[in-house]
Amino acid sequence: MKKSLFLFFLLICTLFFFRNSAAEEDLTVEESFIFIRVNNTFGDPFFRVYMTSDGKKIYIPLRSLIEFTGIQTLEVDTADKTVLGSVVTLDNFDNLTEEKFLRSYAGARYIERDEDIFVDIQNLTSVMKLKDLFWDENRSYLVVELDYLLPFQVKDINEQKKYNLNSNLESEKEKVIQPERKIFSPGVLRLEYFLSDFEDRGTQNFSALYNNQLLYGDFSIQSSFYPETELDLITLKYRDKLDGKLILLGDTSLEKNNALSLKESNVRGFNIINDGIYTEVDSRKVTIKGPVVNGTTVELYQSDILIGLQVVTTSNEYSFEDITLFGYSDDFVLKFYYPNGRIEERSINTISDYDIQEKGKSDYSIQLGELDNSLAGSAKYLYGITDNITLGARYLKANSKDIEIDDNEESNEFNIAEGILIMRSRAKKNPTLYKFNWLADLDDTGEGTFRAKINKQLWFLDTELFYDEYSDEVTLVEERERRYGGLISTGVGRFSYNLGYEMREDLDGDERRYTFDTRYFPTDTTRLLLNNTYRDLENEEDEFRIRFSTSYSGFKSFNINLRANGTYSDGEWGDEEYSVGIAKKYREFKKNDLDYSAEVKYSSEEWQFTLYFSYYFTDWLSVPARFTEDDQEVGVAVEKTFILSRLFKESGNPEPEEAWLEGFVFRDDNGNNTKDPGEEYFEGIEVIVGPEKTFTDKNGYYYIDGVEGNFVQEVKPGYQSVDPLLRFTQEKYKIRPIPATGHRLDIPLVPIFAIIGDIELGNSEFSASKRARIFQQTKIYVKNGDEIISSNTAESDGFFIIEDIIPGKYTVEAKYLGDEDLYIEKNSYDLHIQAGETGEYYEGFNFKILENLGEKVASEI
């Protein structure tokens, strides 16, 4: 009875906290002025806001902020309480992309005055999609960094692209160093041994992993030798041969319609698949998985709260399943902690489950191989008829999961052709999304399987309707003839709700399922989640299931989770389980590192306690230990890597698929980027690759391993022990290393120079703030032929300086990028910097900005 009351108490408390705390504020506020700076560019010292009389709350006007940024494609809709339109962003390859923008302020604290919406500064980040915000109360100073570009920044990028990307020179993407691939390289071998317990010689495993270049591809093999000999994994991968596709020979997961359950999902054969994150949404349950380097810790965040954590050890793949989706506005972010210490974030769009293609664009995948000792395969093709209509087809051949036939466990063979139709309504705001699938059993003349799903946002509600009707063969495997239902989701501020109904016509009786899920974020690092399910069963007692969980991720090194589950059926509670646990966020695999987790659980009327830790004596030798209330285990784990081309040289203990870099740092007196006789080596120079760093030895040599392959890496030399009048020819180098391979990268130093000048306004009078804004929207470019070498914006008084220019012939050009009708009288100068004494300044590069008053002006403004 006490446990029942406890579960009921959790339900009442959660629902009590899930209330609407966000609405229009009714406060006494006063007009005030602050200094605001946007995207680290121009600012306004007299930006009007409202503050409470005690100065503790500040409200920022949305319309005024948008007008100040100059983004004319954004607007505030007070009827729907949204900020909508479009913005321009910059991707990892410096491509400009126009994205739809839709953010609601309905859940924020705000006041409506003076034909504007003043939002509490604490809600501004989510409403305006900010990357960062800094407020100095003492100085009344606000710094706002948008997650998108200002109009003059777009003009600046287009200007640089016009020279650097449209010229005959290499683009930034092409400037990435791409080492040549080989038919064969010695590669990297890792030997792994694990013993769970010294005392009773518990579980033992001995295995090996080997990676190298083979036939110009990335080869990997993993095999177990004890207690049984077995080939666990073998792959040969080719990237960049087909645009955005991965050619894989060997083992991978078979793609399929999620209505079908297979006996095995790992196919060994020939594959052309997408190389990236895979997402799947079914009845608001999300699956997210993808490839990753072994040894990586993967965290999954939903709306900025940690909801899942995995440490990938052997499969080179992470997978998060059965995640509750509270609306398609939910933001999912994956955070990867790689073995070398590098941290990466990737955003996920759950609506991508619809696979909508742009007009004339297509997507495809091909898989053919052995699965469960039988021939299996899958092929899919999607084509965009219009931007809103996509047609597709898929073929699947594989064995189903085992089913009971004549008292025997057997599997059927799926031989299925599938038709796919995906549509999106033409409404720019809140379009309706449709997805229809027809699955025909090619070995059965009966009716096939039909699936339909419709998603629509109605006002503040996300709605979904679905209908599945199965063929005879699929019914036999899935033990279900039909399912249909709907879901409604909404969120207000820190609260989210899911309400669902599902009818299942199963072979063993019908089931009506009602769900009510609630989620609340008390703080930015705390999540409360309550899942309630009521099952109305035709041939069994009805049951009510409740699951409560809370997590806190505010600590730097570990997370806390608390869970409570229970099922009420036939007048009593059962399947009760309560647990609280902590776990380290990620493992560093370094000397003297400690990995740990602990859990206290009450289940089946018993208390259970588990403590796990693993202490690393070196980066390859650790002692894992596991303690429970009635048992304890202390063992040993060895994970030693051998770089076969460096067996007799010092190296670390990288993962087998990681690369390494080496080279020399020297003074390049003649600026030819090549080490010539007599040019000096530098000792003690720091070289940084991601989180890894090292220093050159007395011969100027450096070596760094644990570098992730097939991803662009930045190599940054440091300036310790370097003459301040010398500069590296590049602040950073970009290289895309090949896995399990070493690469040489020499780093030269050259003398530096600086260019100084002033900008003045000529024929018109402007206010001080407007003059400053004009100056700050004027960009000065240093060009070498058709390539922009360096650039800088002027200060608020018109002064500019461009430093770290190496010897060469240049053009110094000024360009006004704002919206005023202005032009520059003489907008360029020629400059020839010759090698010689370092530290010289080149002065006198002055420009005059004039207002176009109708006189004849230069042909290019």
Broad structural category: mainly beta
- The helicity comes to under 10%
Estimate the global geometry from the Cα principal axes.
globular
Distance from first to last alpha carbon: 81 Å
Largest sheet geometry: 24 strands, antiparallel, barrel
Q: Which parts are unreliable, with pLDDT below 50 for 5 consecutive residues or more? A: 1-23, 165-174, 855-861
Strand content: over 45%
How large is the count of helical segments? 6
Q: Cα-atom Rg, whole angstroms?
A: 31 Å
Annotation, overall tally of beta strands: 60
Mean pLDDT across residues: 82
Topology:
Elements: H1 2-17, E1 29-38, E2 43-52, E3 58-61, H2 62-69, E4 74-77, E5 82-90, E6 96-104, E7 110-113, E8 116-120, H3 124-127, E9 130-136, E10 141-146, H4 151-164, E11 188-195, E12 204-214, E13 217-226, E14 230-239, E15 245-253, E16 266-274, E17 278-282, E18 285-291, E19 297-302, E20 305-311, E21 317-324, E22 332-337, E23 343-348, E24 362-371, E25 374-384, E26 389-405, E27 408-424, E28 433-441, E29 449-458, E30 461-469, H5 472-478, E31 480-492, E32 495-506, E33 509-523, E34 526-537, E35 543-552, E36 558-569, E37 572-584, E38 594-603, E39 606-616, E40 621-628, E41 632-634, E42 636-643, E43 659-667, E44 686-689, E45 692-695, E46 701-707, E47 713-717, E48 726-728, E49 733-735, E50 742-744, E51 747-751, E52 753-761, H6 768-776, E53 778-784, E54 787-793, E55 799-805, E56 808-816, E57 822-824, E58 828-833, E59 841-842, E60 847-851
Parallel strand pairs: 1-10, 43-50, 43-51, 52-59, 52-60
Antiparallel strand pairs: 1-2, 2-3, 3-8, 4-5, 5-6, 7-8, 9-10, 11-12, 11-42, 12-13, 13-14, 14-15, 15-16, 16-24, 17-18, 18-21, 19-20, 19-22, 22-23, 24-25, 25-26, 26-27, 27-28, 28-29, 29-30, 30-31, 31-32, 32-33, 33-34, 34-35, 35-36, 36-37, 37-38, 38-39, 39-40, 40-41, 40-42, 43-46, 44-45, 44-47, ...
